[in-house]
Amino acid sequence: MLEKILQKLKSRLGMFLAVLLSIILFSISQALSQQPVVLNMLITALDAPPWKQGIIKDFETKNPGIRINLIEGPNAANLLEDLYTSAFILGDSPYDLVNMDVIWTPKFAAAGWLLDLGDRLTKEELAAFSPKDVEGGRYEGKLYRIPMRSDVGVFYYREDLLKQAGYQPPDTFGDLLKISKSLKEQGKINWGYVWQGRQYEGLAAMFVEVLEGFGGFWVNPATLEVGLDKPETLKAIAFLKDTIQEGISPGGVTTYQEEETRRFFQSGEAAFLRSWPYVWPLANSEDSPIKGKIGIKPMLSTPGNSGGACLGGWGLGIAKSSKHPKEAWKAIQYFTSEQAQRQFILDAGFVPSRRSLFTDPKIVSKYPHYPKLLEIVDRAVLRPPIAQYAQTSDILQRYLSAALTNRMTPETAMQAAASETRRLLAGGK
Prior knowledge:
By secondary structure, the chain is α/β, with parallel strands linked by helices. The protein folds into two domains: 34-151 and 311-377, D-Maltodextrin-Binding Protein, domain 2 (3-Layer(aba) Sandwich), CATH 3.40.190; 152-310 and 384-428, D-Maltodextrin-Binding Protein, domain 2 (3-Layer(aba) Sandwich), CATH 3.40.190. The protein has 18 helices and twelve strands. The chain has helices at residues 2-34, 48-62, 77-90, 105-110, 123-126, 131-135, 159-165, 173-185, 201-213, 231-245, 258-266, 279-283, 325-335, 338-348, 361-366, 370-377, 389-404, 410-428, and strands at residues 37-44, 66-73, 97-101, 138-139, 142-143, 146-152, 154-158, 191-194, 270-275, 294-297, 309-318, 380-381. Strands 3, 6, 11 and 12 form a four-stranded mixed β-sheet that branches. A four-stranded mixed β-sheet has the order 8-9-7-10. The radius of gyration is 27 Å and the shape is globular. The chain starts with a helix and ends with a helix. The relative contact order is 0.15.
């Protein structure tokens, strides 16, 4: 009798333990299923605050099953690119969302690190973005990057000084030299024009605009033809050298980056500046000597040619190695939506990638120059969208700097640059 009771107890205990185990396993599976999906994204520390304080919080509120883990990296874009590249090369990248400078897209796409997003947006949906920003997200006909915010080269001028002297803003490089000389002779300014001449990526960005204005080209991405040793390129270099030789630009301009040129212009020492949209709010701050005295327009050109604005900006892609592509796409859809981008622009002052936002009443009330900025965005030119862009840019920077600082003649420098570029691109094939 006792044995039967013990057997029943054992049987019931076994059932109880089995039920208990199943409950525990179910609870664990439920807990795991309720854990939010975490999407990792690397970004410069400088750009992180408006993401953290605004659109990420909004997205997570609307999507409680997804969390964005923002990893703050170095502020230098090339160092951020190196971190992304190293992670992808190691083969187990922790990143789901890939925040890309426009010039990284061809390299990342050619290496097979990104998902093709071309089938996720209709033509009508893409048409809401600035065409050049969309083009900057393509490589060999496929779309890998959705533009989050744009950026373009801007030509700034002192509206007050030109009006006082009876001049209209210059349209050609010749006009620029002529007006600068006149303003200097009148003692209105110390310098006419400041631009980025140091050997770094900013030199390439500046030069692609001048090259466009002279009717030249750097590399044709469709044919890989190189235009650096053509007459138009030499004329573009001659113009830049003339600004120094004729005292229009300071001799030290070949060592300047963006901030050195901004300080020159904002202090009232120069009449004209080539830079980026970030200068506008700084130059119009309460303590700025030139507050309310500046205008903007696209880069200048020679007669018969069109001026261009170098396209910059950032966009979002999805890492091919991501385990959560569905959630990553949901995040991109939200971050690049009109609602989210409007708030992002109002909070951070960046340039929109959606055309409608340049004339949005709320944005224009805060940034009245944005409709004019749209005209500049529409004249944007891309740096060559080729997989070997980083090496191609390094070649141009080295030889262009040598030509501008008189270490080589422009002819010799550009022949060498063209030859080296052709060898690089031929090797890439």
